[in-house]
Design goal:
Layout (H helix, E strand, L loop, with lengths): L2 H25 L9 H11 L18 E5 L11 E5 H7 L4 H13 L1
Antiparallel strand pairs: 1-2
Length: 111
């Protein structure tokens, strides 16, 4: 697969993730995400496809597949409050803040 093909697959995945977030916001009667597919693609490239919670390379599917995370749960999907994380990491984080998540991860790793 060429680099361009890989980027197209990532872009398509991010588009689907954003569509899902919009539907979820609409269902919960919350404002729509303020992030765009081009912004998400830049964020993916900036992160080098690495999950900022687990520090693992994300895949396009499965538990390490990407999803959107609200850095501060309950707030809006803004550029300052949105990150791309692995699905498993987002499930682990739940409603915790990043500070609480990092603290718990340190305890798990030390055990």
């Amino acid at each position: 697969m060429t680099h361009d093909q890989t980027i197209k697959r990532i872009e398509a995945k991010l588009k689907g993730i954003l569509r899902w977030a919009r539907i979820r916001c609409e269902t919960r009667r919350r404002p729509k995400p303020q992030v765009t597919v081009p912004w998400l693609l830049k964020a993916w490239k900036r992160q080098r496809g690495i999950c900022p919670i687990f520090h693992l390379k994300m895949t396009l599917d499965g538990p390490l597949g990407p999803t959107l995370d609200q850095i501060e749960p309950g707030k809006l999907y803004t550029r300052k409050n949105t990150q791309i994380v692995a699905k498993a990491a987002n499930a682990f984080k739940g409603t915790m803040t990043m500070k609480e998540t990092r603290s718990l991860l340190r305890k798990v790793r030390a055990a």
